[in-house]
Amino acid sequence: MPKLITLPLSHFCEKARWGLDRAKIHYSEARHAPGFHVYAVRRAGGQRSTPILATRDGVIVDSTDILLWANERAAMGRELYPTDPSVRAEVLALENRCDVDLGPHVRRVIYFDLLPLPELVIPMMTYGVPRYERLLLPLIYRPLRKLMRSSMRIDAAGAKRSIDKLMKVMDDVSKLLADGRPYLAGDRFGAADITFAALAAPIVSAPGYAVPLPGLDDLPSATADLVRRVRDTPAGAFCLRMYRDERRA
Ligand SMILES: N[C@@H](CCC(=O)N[C@@H](CS)C(=O)NCC(=O)O)C(=O)O
Questions:
Q1: pTM value?
Q2: How confident is residue 21, by pLDDT bands cut at 50, 70 and 90?
Q3: What is the residue with the minimal CA distance to atom 19 of ligand 1?
Q4: Alpha-carbon gap, residue 193 to 196, rounded angstroms
Q5: Which of 4, 13, 18, 50 to mutate to test ligand 1, by most ligand atoms within 8 A of the CB atom?
Q6: Which fold has domain 85-245?
Q7: Which pLDDT score, from 0 to 100, does residue 237 have?
Q8: Mean pLDDT of 191-210
């Protein structure tokens, strides 16, 4: 059975997980706490980034490649990409745009706001991981946080720039949706919707995400204001609708 190695809070991992679930692929998931994930990823043949999917065909080390792999093996009617070449190109372009211009910026903003709050973030980082990782993470949290801040350039100026970047994607997706289309590309739910919704989920605190995300009352007030602002856009509402209607479908 293919094995998906993930970080519980990672939205790129959620994208891969959603794609596999949607395609009705049987797989197992191994969740690891940050830091500990490196050993699991290396053991499975990856470098350090998650998600990775270990399969009989080899190791797949990128969320888009995992979705393409799942598409080839999808149950009938559960394909993630359209067959029409022009719609497929549209889906891939949207997916790439979200991977580059949305995912990393959502992550930076969320970590900038939440890394100072270990009591909020550690339970999310350790949701579903092996017990010893859950027990050890608090002990390594401070140096880990320092490393995360420097490797992802998480600072006030970066977070501010990332808010602008992610709001630009929200604006563009809202414009796409303005013609009343039910899905982002083509007439069926698929990879573009999964990618956008999974990568936006942490910034709208979407119910139904891989780990329970904080409610508005549990977030620092500036973060809660941003979540409200994003939820109020058509794109934010679309993300919530995809979680409500399609995540478990
Ligand atoms: N382009 C990659 C991005 C994956 C990515 O950024 N993964 C992050 C989590 S959101 C990660 O594993 N970071 C930990 C690390 O690199 O050690 C994909 O689509 O799979």
A1: 0.97
A2: very high
A3: 63
A4: 5
A5: 50
A6: Glutathione S-transferase Yfyf (Class Pi); Chain A, domain 2 (1.20.1050)
A7: 98
A8: 98
